[in-house]
Every structure is written in structure tokens, then in C-alpha cells.
Automatic annotation (TrEMBL):
One of its GO terms (biological process) is glutathione metabolic process. Its EC number is 2.5.1.18. It comes from Paragonimus westermani. InterPro entries: Glutathione_S-Trfase_N, GST_superfamily, Thioredoxin-like_sf. Keywords: Isomerase, Transferase. It catalyses: RX + glutathione = an S-substituted glutathione + a halide anion + H(+). Residues 1-65 form the GST N-terminal domain. This is glutathione transferase. It is an enzyme of class 2 (transferase). GO terms for molecular function: glutathione transferase activity; isomerase activity. The lineage of its organism: Eukaryota, Metazoa, Spiralia, Lophotrochozoa, Platyhelminthes.
């Protein structure tokens, strides 16, 4: 979602389950997702762990708040999502939902993507 919110160009590569056993040993931790980043020196760096990737992207693209209080609220929302089960209902995350609506209003491309996805509990 951060890639869409920051309106970044990216390629979304999906992996077939049948291909995963051959790919897994070549990943940093044997898990997905992976973000391939081209470094300043031109090398490819593989990043893993979805929330670490999201935070890194958000920070790199000035989306982690403009002051300490905003930063705290963003980190709090990340933490709430991180530590809970995906099936937990939205009413457990009122602050997350409030920020979600704000982001979707500001970023039409992200809103269109979210509309195209299947409905989930989050």
C-alpha cells in the first residue's frame, strides 16, 4: 500500500507455488514479500519483512509524519496491525481506519487499487 500511497512506479511479481521451492533458498529469510531496491552504487539489494519494507518506504518518501506526534500515531497504527490477527474486526482499529480514509482521499491511485482488491477484514 505504501508504494501506491507514495505513487511510485513498481513491478509486482507474483510467484507460483510450484516455483517457490526453487526461489526460497535465494531469499534473505526464506519468506515473502521481497522488495528489490537498486542502491546508489547500482547494486540490487533485497529487502524482506513486510512492515520493515513499509516503514522504510514511508520514511524514504516523507510519509512518517512531519513532527514527533504524527510519527507516533503512524507507528502506533503500524504496531496495532503488526501484533493482531488479520481477521480482527475493523472496530478494534479506529485510529488505523481514520488514517486509512485520509490516505485514500489524498491518493486516488491507491484508492482505485484498494477498490479493485477483494474485501478483507482489514
Amino acid at each position: 500500500m505504501v508504494l501506491y500511497a507514495a505513487e511510485l512506479e513498481f513491478e509486482d511479481h507474483r510467484i507460483e507455488m510450484s516455483d517457490w521451492p526453487a526461489i526460497k533458498p535465494n531469499t534473505p529469510s526464506g519468506q515473502l514479500p521481497i522488495l528489490d531496491v537498486i542502491t546508489d552504487s547500482g547494486e540490487t539489494r533485497q529487502m524482506d519483512e513486510s512492515f520493515a519494507i513499509a516503514r522504510w518506504l514511508a520514511r524514504k518518501h516523507q510519509m512518517m509524519g512531519s513532527n514527533d506526534d504524527e510519527y507516533y500515531e503512524i507507528e502506533r497504527a503500524f504496531s496495532q496491525v503488526e501484533v493482531t490477527a488479520p481477521g480482527l474486526s475493523k472496530d478494534k482499529f479506529p485510529i488505523f481506519e481514520r488514517h486509512r480514509e485520509t490516505v485514500l482521499k489524498k491518493h486516488a491511485k491507491l484508492a482505485a487499487y484498494m477498490e479493485s482488491r477483494p474485501t478483507t477484514d482489514l
